[in-house]
Every structure is written in structure tokens, then in C-alpha cells.
Amino acid sequence: MIRVLIADDEPLIRAGIRMILTSADDIEVVAEAVNGREAVELARRHRVDVALLDIQMPVLDGLTALGELGRHAPGVRALILTTFGEPDNVLRALRQGGAGFLLKDSAPGELIGAVRAAAAGAAYLSPAATRHVADSLAAGPVAARGEEARRRVAELSEREREVLALLGEGLSNADAGRRIHMSEATVKTYVSRILAKLGCENRVQAALLARDADLGA
After folding, report:
1. Which whole-number Å values give the CA distances from 84 to 6, 7, 54, 110, 132, in the listed order?
2. Of 145, 137, 133, which is closest to residue 90 (Cα–Cα)?
3. Which sign does the torsion angle of CA 42, 122, 92, 57 carry?
4. Is this model's pTM higher than 0.90 or not?
5. Taking CA atoms, which of 101, 102, 135, 162 is between 20 and 30 Å from 127?
6. Can you tell me the distance from the alpha carbon of 138 to that of 46, in angstroms, rounded to the nearest whole number?
7. What is the model's pLDDT at position 216?
8. What Å distances lie between residue 122 and 59, 102, 204, CA to CA?
């Protein structure tokens, strides 16, 4: 079972999300939080696999809570769930190690799929959030970031760059392995090596670096 925490200060929102997630036979909602501070504490206490974090919460907002989870509960995969799709929020969430970004008007099946993808170690961006990111990446500062990304990626071997490109597509280890005819365990080894070489804390940060370096192209 995928153990999930829902963090949102609106009871009706939490109830709706819980109803959707518990309709899946492989997902269990083990905790609910009304603010970011409580979310971090409950995530540690209940051995959560995936945390759904609203951005705008009292005491500690979702993006700050995401950073706290990275320090105090690094095994938790965090999905940001919000009505706000500003590119800055999306990019900040992903660069802080978030497993993905969903808008609250996402379809129920998309929410369940995102939780499953996060639990499997893949990154997930809703189509709407992806459009926001694409618009942001078309802006001027991206050129300098792309140059830095290409410099860092140049340190990798050809095979490592191939695996990194698949991370940039948001593929799990299993899906990446099938794509390049490699075992899941071998892909996992490559991913660990890539993260170490690039100085990335997690695969989502590596995926963003792959995008900046235009490896997908």
C-alpha cells in the first residue's frame, strides 16, 4: 500500500482528496494535516510514502514544508497540490526536491496516477503545470542556466547522459530500463552515480538539469 498524507487547511478539500485516493485499492490515507508544520511532523510519525501539500497553508506554507521534509523526512515524496499555477511556484517546488505539481482542478484519475508515479520514484507534472513551466523556461534567464547545465552534464559518460535524458522525461527506473534494454537495478545504479556527479539531491533536480541542458532534444 502507498501511505499518503494530505496537508490542506480546508476540511472539504481534504475530504474530497481522501475520497478520491481511497477509491484506489493500493493507496491508504494515513494522516491529514491542517498546516505545513503539522504535515512535517505527521509525515515522520506515520512513515508516509507520499505527501500532498497545498501551497497556501497557515503556520508553514507548502513550499517551506517541502524544504523541511527534505531535511527531516527525506524518504517522503512530496506532491504540491494547489489552485495556483505560477511558474515560479512550480519551479521552486521541483528544484527543492518535490516529486511533482498538480492543480486542484486535476481529474481524479490524474491525482491517483500522480501519487502512484511519485511512489514509484518518478516525477509528475500536470499538463497545466507543464505549460506554465514551459512558458517560464522560454524567458531570458534560461539561457545562462542552460549553459551551466550543459557544462555539468558534459562530465557524464554517454550512457549516463542517456539515462539522465530519460529522467528528464519523468520516467521511473523500470520504464527507463525498458526503453534502453537495461535492468531496473542497473538503472538505479546509474541514477545514483549521476546524482553524485551532478551534485543533485534527488532525481527531480537531475530531471530539471536534463531539461535545462536540452538532453531531450
Report:
1. 17, 16, 10, 17, 10
2. 133
3. negative
4. no
5. 162
6. 41
7. 64
8. 29, 14, 8
In this predicted model, what pLDDT tens digit does every residue of 66-101 receive, in sequence order? 999 988 898 999 999 877 656 667 777 777 778 888
Joined grid coordinates for residue 23:
477509491
Nearest to 170 by CA among 135, 96, 131, 120: 120
Strand partners, 137: none
CB atoms within 10 A of CB 170: 19
Taking 50 as the pLDDT cut, the residues of the chain under it are: 140, 217
Helix (H) or strand (E) run with residue 13 in it: helix 11-22
Q: Beta strands 50-54 and 77-82: pairing type?
A: parallel
Q: Within 10 A of 145 (CB to CB), how many other CB atoms are there?
A: 15
